[in-house]
Amino acid sequence: METTSRAVAQTPAGEGGEQSPSARRTVDGYLRAPFPWYGLDEAFTGPRWLMQVGTAADGVVEHGSIGHGDEPSVRNEHTAGGEQDAKERFAVVVTVAAHPVRRSPDGTGLLEATSVSSAAWLAGVGLLSFTWPGQMDHSLRDDWLEQQTETAWVLADDLDGPDWTALSLPVDGVPTPFHYRESEFGWVLAGSTEQGVHLGAYGRGMSAYGLAFAVVKDIGAYA
Q1: Rg (CA), the chain
Q2: For the region Disordered, what residue ranges are annotated (predicted)?
Q3: Residue 78, Cβ neighbours under 10 Å: how many?
Q4: Which member of 32, 90, 169, 175 has the lowest number of beta carbons within 10 Å of its beta carbon?
Q5: Closest to 96 in 3D by CA, of 198, 3, 216
C-alpha cells in the first residue's frame, strides 16, 4: 500500500498546502467502497464533511477521510499556540480497508497489504497537509513535506516504539485499543475494528481522549 497511499495522500496539498475543493465533498467514491465508513459517534453534534478517497493500483477504493468540526486551515509558526489554533477544533477519521497481500488484476505483481500502520501513516500525512512553515521559502516547501512524510512513515512503521502510547476508545460501543501520539502539529491515533477496517484519526483543538467512533449509517447523506 505504501506507493499508492503516498501518492494519494499528497494529492490534495496544493499551493500553500491547502486542499483543492475539487478533491473534497464528492460522495461517489465513498459509495463505491466495499467496506463500511467510520466517523465520530452521535455524541458529536458539530459539522461533518467529506474529504476524499484513495484507491489501490487496481482502482478499488481502499481508504478515505471524514472531517468533523471546523474545517482546518494551514498552521504555521506564526499561529502555533495562538488565537487561530484556539478557534480551530477538528478531528478527521480515516477508514482503511483491511486486506492481505493480493495479486494485481493483470497478474504481473502483488498489491501490498494494509495494516494499522497504513492507517497511522495516512493520519500522520493528513495532519501534515494542514501544517506548513510560513517562513519557509517556497522552493524548500516540497523538501520539507517530503522529509516530514518520511518521518510519519517511520513512526507509523514502529507502533510499539517510544513515540506511541496506548489509548482505549469506544468503537461501535466496544472499548478498542489504539496507538496514540502527539506532536507540535496536533495528535494522531490508529487502531483496528471488528468490521474489517483499520481506523486512523488526527486533529487539533479537540481532545482525542474523549472521542468515540461508529459506522456511518448513511454516507449518501453527505452528498
Answers
A1: 17
A2: 1-25, 61-86
A3: 10
A4: 175
A5: 198
Residue with cell 453527505: 222
Q: d(Cα 161, Cα 183) in Å, to the nearest integer?
A: 15
pTM of the entire predicted model: 0.81
Per-residue CA distances from 217 to 25, 33, 42, 109, 191 (Å): 17, 14, 11, 36, 20
**Rounded distance, CA 156 to CA 160, Å?**
9
End-to-end CA distance of the chain: 28
**What is the domain partition of the chain in residue ranges?**
2-222
Phi, psi at 211, each rounded to 5°: -85, 155
Banded pLDDT at 109 (limits 50, 70, 90): low
Query: For 67-79, how does the pLDDT look when each residue is reduced to its tens digit (9 = 90+)?
Result: 999 988 765 544 4
**Contact at 8 Å (CB) between 167 and 200?**
no
Specify burial of residue 4 (Cβ count, 10 A radius: 0-12, 13-18, 19+): middle
Q: How far apart are CA 141 and CA 15, in angstroms?
A: 10
Of the candidates 189, 194, 128, 126, the one whose C-alpha atom is nearest the C-alpha of residue 159 is 189
CA 75, 80, 82, 87: dihedral to nearest 10 degrees?
40
Closest C-alpha to 171, from 152, 190, 143: 190
One-letter amino acid for residue 157 of the chain = D
- Count the neighbouring beta carbons within 10 Å of the beta carbon of residue 219: 18
